[in-house]
Amino acid sequence: MLANYLRHPRHGPLPAILLLLTFGTGLVDALSILGLGRVFVANMTGNVVFIGFALAGAPGFSLAGSLVALAAFLLGASAGGLLVARSGGHRGRLLRNALLGETGLLLVALALWSALPGTGAALPVLGVAALALGVQNSVVRRLAVPDLTTTVLTMTLTGIGADLRRGDVATAVRRTVTVLCMLAGAVVGALVVLRSGVGAGLVAVTAVTVLALVAAALASRGEPAWALPSR
After folding, report:
1. Where does the pLDDT of residue 152 fall: very low under 50, low under 70, confident under 90, or very high at 90 and above?
2. What HEC string does the chain produce?
3. CATH code of the domain occupying 13-220
């Protein structure tokens, strides 16, 4: 089973790298929800709902934060689309280039958190982090590895139920691993933020992204069959 993540016949090492990014999504959303005012930077469905709560006057929800994150995510997704147009002919290089940009943005977010006083850093950090996740989401969509969107689990969970009903245990297990990766990231992210603060959470997210970047850089070498755009 491990070989299907590291040396998949159609997707090469992409599944393993995307699982790592799924873990990172759990980390970064734990960070933004618990440390930056109840705002998602990866899960935009949640932000749309939170905007509705804020408009209705529900306490504890940041309309400005959710709007900033949503706008920045859309801008990042557009930038990811440009990256796909330039690097989409090699999936390994496309992911490498996206993660290089994402790492740079996360380092900017970390610098902003260190430089700006108190809560004044929250909105800029939310915007930069959401921009990074928008790039990631757009590029991962292009990679088209089944059940590994890195940010959304609704259809993955739906698929698990359907797989079990028809006895497709192998696919159900693969999808369950994806869910568990995000869950693990959320647990680790919550522990880091609650015990050590937002700065430590940003360091953890950046470290995971750098690890994924190194793996993608190694995967980008050569012209293996899996690197061709998925049809």
Report:
1. confident
2. CHHHHHCECCCECHHHHHHHHHHHHHHHHHHHHHHCCCCCCCCHHHHHHHHHHHHCCCCCCCHHHHHHHHHHHHHHHHHHHHHHHHHCCCHHHHHHHHHHHHHHHHHHHHHHHHHCCHHHHHHHHHHHHHHHHHHHHHHHHHHCCCCCCCCCCHHHHHHHHHHHHCCCHHHHHHHHHHHHHHHHHHHHHHHHHHHHCHHHHHHHHHHHHHHHHHHHHHHCCCCCHHHCCCC
3. 1.20.1250
- Give the pLDDT confidence of 64-121 residue by residue, as tens digits: 999 999 999 999 999 999 999 988 789 999 999 999 999 999 999 999 999 987 678 9
CA angle 183, 65, 83 (to 5 degrees): 70
Rounded (10°) angle between helices 198-219 and 91-115: 160
Give the Cα separation of 180 and 116 in Å (integer): 35
Let me know: does 40 contact 69? Beta carbons within 8 Å.
yes
* Average pLDDT score over residue span 140-153: 86
